[in-house]
Write a structure and sequence with these properties.
79 residues, alpha+beta, four-stranded antiparallel β-sheet, 15% helix, elongated
Amino acid sequence: MEKATAAGHRETVVQPAWTKSSLSFANGDCVEVAHLPGGAIGVRDSKDSEGPVLRFTPDEWHAFLGGVRHGEFDKFSRA
């Protein structure tokens, strides 16, 4: 996508490529993740693509993924 700058120049704006888990169900209760400009990781509600985006540094994101892999959040999946 292109946009005009204040000086009238055209610049290309790279849109994030959002990814949803292949394990997502059709009920729409999913999140999407993308690399954002500047190196941040974004997480959003897949039902609200124009809504708010949670932004994490790469270190924060890797710490979160490590916690998921080690079962630190398993207790939250029990209803």
